[in-house]
């Protein structure tokens, strides 16, 4: 595969976790084509946690990158002019530009987000909207994909966005392998809420993660709300409320996303017929699989398989 160069631009005050996410996802692996470089405007960069990092790359590596990622930083109003110019230049040259968390402030300052949909950390989203009125702010999402410009919401949503990029570039099978290595949750679609104001669990309450895992092992079966609630040992009403609190989506939408993810992996890694893929992922018929593929991905199962097995 042709090497795809990823530059992670760490600005002073970079949030260590925001920086670690793309570093972990895009480091060199046998099954990927990424080459990741930590870049800064100087030889060292201060983090928000008080320690410094030595940067491997600088301006030249940024200019040579195919994808530039800006992790969150603090304070958000101290974006260096050099960084603003470099990000604007990268976009003008058709490079993919990505932000995690408050990194969106740097992209907006560079004009990269003008006229586009974007998001950032929920705590700063009001300020972001006031400061950059030309940006169409999406408040209740994990990430926004505008083609070659992508933004994620707060901190750990960067995991969802980076895995989404891998899925776009290399397919669901590779992204799922990386997610398993990270012990990350199954793929979350970008349209889910970034912040769910759920109360703390009371003594005796249990997460629904066991029920979600149980369902993932049975996607080829008919899974109703009644069955899921029974597994969770809850009433259907309580189950629906708790599921929304934990995931920011409904059980049926979550199941559909999980089934599409399984279908994508089967299309990439097996030569099973479309009819069998539809049955094995729980979507029933080829017509139903094609319908949901078209709605979610804008393509057909056959065209998807051709693209990721060529």
UniProtKB/TrEMBL annotation:
Known SUPFAM superfamilies for this protein?
Answer: Class I glutamine amidotransferase-like, Homeodomain-like
Matches recorded under Pfam families:
DJ-1_PfpI, HTH_18
- Cited InterPro entries: Class_I_gatase-like, DJ-1/PfpI, Homeodomain-like_sf, HTH_AraC, HTH_AraC-typ_CS, INH-QAR
Is-annotated flag, keyword Transferase? no
- Lineage of the native species? Bacteria, Bacillati, Actinomycetota, Actinomycetes, Pseudonocardiales
Q: Does the keyword Ribonucleoprotein apply?
A: no
GO molecular function list: DNA-binding transcription factor activity; sequence-specific DNA binding
Q: Where is the HTH araC/xylS-type domain?
A: 209-307
According to UniProt, the name of this protein is: Helix-turn-helix domain-containing protein
Per UniProt, the keywords (alphabetical) are: DNA-binding, Transcription, Transcription regulation
């Amino acid at each position: 595969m042709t090497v795809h160069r990823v530059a992670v631009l760490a600005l002073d005050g970079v949030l260590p976790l925001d920086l670690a996410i793309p570093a972990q996802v895009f480091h060199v692996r046998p099954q990927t084509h990424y080459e990741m470089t930590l870049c800064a405007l100087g030889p060292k960069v201060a983090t928000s946690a008080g320690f410094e990092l030595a940067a491997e790359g600088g301006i030249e590596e940024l200019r040579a990158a195919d994808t530039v990622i800006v992790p969150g930083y603090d304070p958000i109003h101290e974006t260096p002019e050099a960084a603003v110019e470099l990000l604007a230049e990268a976009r003008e040259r058709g490079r993919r530009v990505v932000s995690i968390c408050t990194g969106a402030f740097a992209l907006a300052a560079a004009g990269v987000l003008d006229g586009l949909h974007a998001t950032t950390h929920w705590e700063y989203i009001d300020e972001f909207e006031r400061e950059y009125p030309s940006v169409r702010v999406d408040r209740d999402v994990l990430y926004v994909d505008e083609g070659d410009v992508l933004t994620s919401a707060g901190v750990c949503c960067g995991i969802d966005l980076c895995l989404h990029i891998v899925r776009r570039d290399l397919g669901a099978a590779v992204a799922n392998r990386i997610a398993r290595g990270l012990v990350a949750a199954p793929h979350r679609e970008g349209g889910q809420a970034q912040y769910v104001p759920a109360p703390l669990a009371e003594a005796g309450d249990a997460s629904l993660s066991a029920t979600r895992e149980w369902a993932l092992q049975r996607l080829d079966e008919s899974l109703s709300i009644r069955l899921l609630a029974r597994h969770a040992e809850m009433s259907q009403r309580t189950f629906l409320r708790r599921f929304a609190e934990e995931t920011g989506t409904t059980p049926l939408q979550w199941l559909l996303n999980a089934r599409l993810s399984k279908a994508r992996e089967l299309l990439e890694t097996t030569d099973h017929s479309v009819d069998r893929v539809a049955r094995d992922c729980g979507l029933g018929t080829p017509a139903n699989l094609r319908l949901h593929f078209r709605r979610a991905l804008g393509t057909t199962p056959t065209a998807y398989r051709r693209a990721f097995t060529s």
